[in-house]
Amino acid sequence: MQTKRFQKILFLTKFNFKRDWFKLSLWALVLIALFVGVAGKFTSLYGSKAGIDQIVKTLKTPAMVSLFGKMPQGPYTSADVFAAEMTVFMAIFAIIMNYYFVIKNTRGEEESGVLELIQAHAVGRMSHLAAVLIESFVLNFGIGLIYAIGLQFAGLSGTDTNGNFLLGIGLGATGFMFATVAAVVAQLSDNSRSATILAYLIFAVMYIARMITDVTHPKYTWFVPLGWVEKFSTYQDNNWLPVLFMLVVSTILIILAFYLNGHRDIGSGLIATRPGRKSASFFLRGPISLLWRLNRISILVWFFGIMILGMTYGSIFNTIGDILKTNPMFSQLLDTKAIDTANLLLIKQFIGVLIIVFAVLALIPGISLINYLKTGENKGYLEIIHSKPTSRFRLFSSVTLVAFITSIAVLFAGILGLYLGGNAVMDQPLKFDLFWNCFIGYLSPTLIMLGISTCLLGWIPKLVSLNYGYLIVGFFVKYFGKLLKLPDWTEKITPFGFIDKVPVHNFDVATFGWQLLIAVILIVVGYLGYRRRDLISG
């Protein structure tokens, strides 16, 4: 009986690899190129003792600790700096990759009816889930192994074989652990959208818990599975215990996923969706209200989730501001007013680093909503609307409007959270104008990124996901550009690169104007393409 439950598991695994080979290869190539490429460049960036001391001083500030985690004790080499900067960052990318593949291949295939067709043949009840997990295992540990081999040949000074394989395999174990998290939530929800929201909620809670414990009590980070990546202590203690913990948790979650899978019907979830009304509400008469109805939960989760993240970051403003106050040398050299001014500058620089994070996060739900015009067509969800006298302009403008409002609202929520969280702990409250400048400054590049999505949707809908890749490039350049000493011109490859260090400096009205004009042009061009092209059918 047990054997029949896993019948044809190898066949389904090979089928999954054959179907997903392009996407799997693309993800693997990008991650490996990023990881090994940065490793190969790092010795030239931070090869001297003076350079290492300078970057370590930066990485030990509370702001950097909250972003990258707490560094182990020195002395430090180029390899230690590389591990400190790249570990959490690469772990986050691994989590995003695994959430995408596992939820799409489990709950997504149930939703589309593909799984029902598969299970109509002589395959085991558990074979499909097992094949997805095997695919994920091979993907994560395959990438991890190449990471390790790549580090061996990257010529990064200060590395050792044990540390290279710990970092590579450890990142693979991190990705696989979150793949099993996705496998469990895919059993709980009865649709892929809710499963994705639930999975990212778990990730967000872990990220915030990791950040708080890193800044306040680093020992408590052991209680946060996401924080285990920092406990590798790569090239220092080379601690394999977190990897063991990850494998144990993954095993438990796999057993739980199979148990839940065996106690539900195909197409259903353990968290049932509440049935709707027998007749539609009076307000449910147009595309805007329909889109809000369909996406209201995810929009609210994004709004309040980002606000909480902002409040969490804001809650460490006082810690950042105390850096100069508690330094005896600065106390002797500067008076109280000068120290307060310097503290404010530090906080502004910290906010400047965070704003790009909030802008990128705010764009994810907006781009996703615009892309719904393509996915909804593919899955036939929009057939009813297209069969009614609803013009393409009305549908396009409704989706675009909801997407733009969502991204703008989420960006504002993150900045508002920073303001509320910061002023809750600061002795001298920060003015709201400072945060408002951040919001206005990053509004125009946010609108351009959404405009690019509308263009892709209108003219080349098969490539709508490209904007996510462009978004990642923009985030990487702005977030890591200074640390990796990238040339200044690289910042200009994204619209975010034209924002002049807001809020350290005021936003540039002229830049805001021409970026807004470009965004409007992109939207109009996108609509012209959408009006002309044929509808996509599944």
From TrEMBL:
Signal sequence, renumbered to the chain: none
Entry keyword set: Membrane, Transmembrane, Transmembrane helix
Keyword rRNA-binding included in the entry's annotation: no
Chain segments annotated as transmembrane: 21-40, 81-102, 129-153, 165-185, 197-213, 240-260, 299-320, 350-373, 393-422, 434-457, 464-481, 512-530
Name of the protein this chain belongs to: ABC transporter permease
Organism: Companilactobacillus farciminis
